[in-house]
Amino acid sequence: MSLYPSVLFVLLVTMAAAETLRPGFYAQTCPEAEAIVRYEMMKAMIREPRSVASVMRFQFHDCFVNGCDASLLLDDTPNMLGEKLALSNINSLRSFEVVDEVKEALEKACPGVVSCADVIIMAARDAVALAGGPDWVVRLGRKDCLTASQEDSDNIMPSPRANATSLIDLFTKFNLSVKDLVALSGSHSIGEARCFSIMFRLYNQSGSGKPDPAIEPGFREKLDKLCPLGGDENVTGDLDATPKLFDNQYFKDLVAGRGFLNSDQTLFTFPQTREYVKLFSKDENEFFKAFVEGMLKMGELQSGKGGEIRTNCRVVNSQALDV
């Protein structure tokens, strides 16, 4: 199984938007759309702060697999294995119900107008802003796809074990730069991850039977207690020292050897990405600026296959009518 998409897929998913994306796309058809999404995200954050971090990551997990088309949100059917149970998503992505709540509110205000794909883009932006990070103008006008593929997700999405070289190769295939990679990895400024994702780092890095030498000793002791060998690997740990605040602490932690995931810490140990980690650790404004630029570029990824405006983000419209 290849880690990366085929050449044909790379030709299909381009930065040239298949749909004409623009700010204020719903200004006439659903003028309150963005306010509704922000309000629903605020309610979700009050109820469970971790949920906004989860929803923010939907953009990456959706857009890298056949473009930003809400394929991630489709439930499995008897004839289709969707992306929710893909290797990088199962027991990891959560808070799909938040998107359901946002979509329900939008359908009440403007039935059949706002796509689920655009909901992901708006909700990701709002998650960052509500957690203290930057705010920005999103370009909207996407359509929702008619199918999803667990295999496509498995072939594309990186593992928590990924090193900087493989991550750079992956992002390059989507016309995203090394700077984009490091900045977008800063999404781990908020939220948590499972012990499952780091057991090899703690006890068998690169098959050595030893911990990753890049982990700062004091931090490793903390992780050993959180994630003991033979313990519950679904226990979660903070991705940085300020997991509810979107700031540049994530990069400060990487410089100090306190990155939770291997795919995070490798950004500091690898020369080509290290300078950006250092820059963002010292200058939060530079991080915010680069993060917004990366999110906007990633939001342009589209397959060019067209689609529809789903009324229920979990099913295509033809199936929704049968329910």
Helix-strand pattern = HHHHHHHHHEHHEHHHHH
Multimer state: single chain
**Helical percentage:** 40-55%
> What does the average pLDDT come to?
91
Largest sheet: 2 strands, antiparallel
Strand order of the largest sheet: 1-2
Brief description of this entry?
This protein has helices spanning 7-12, 33-47, 50-56, 58-63, 96-109, 116-130, 150-156, 164-172, 178-185, 199-203, 217-226, 249-255, 262-269, 271-282, 284-298, 317-320, and strands at 192-194, 236-238. It is mainly α. The longest helix has 15 residues, at 33-47.
Structure description:
- GO terms for molecular function: heme binding; lactoperoxidase activity; metal ion binding.
- Heme b binds at residue 188.
- It is an enzyme of class 1 (oxidoreductase).
- This protein is an all-alpha fold.
- It folds into two domains: 32-156, Peroxidase, domain 1 (Orthogonal Bundle), CATH 1.10.520.10; 164-300, Peroxidase, domain 2.
- It has 16 helices and two strands.
- The chain has a two-stranded antiparallel sheet with strand order 1-2.
- The longest helix is centred in the first third of the chain and has 15 residues, at 33-47.
Helices, strands, pairings?
Layout: H1 7-12, H2 33-47, H3 50-56, H4 58-63, H5 96-109, H6 116-130, H7 150-156, H8 164-172, H9 178-185, E1 192-194, H10 199-203, H11 217-226, E2 236-238, H12 249-255, H13 262-269, H14 271-282, H15 284-298, H16 317-320
Antiparallel strand pairs: 1-2
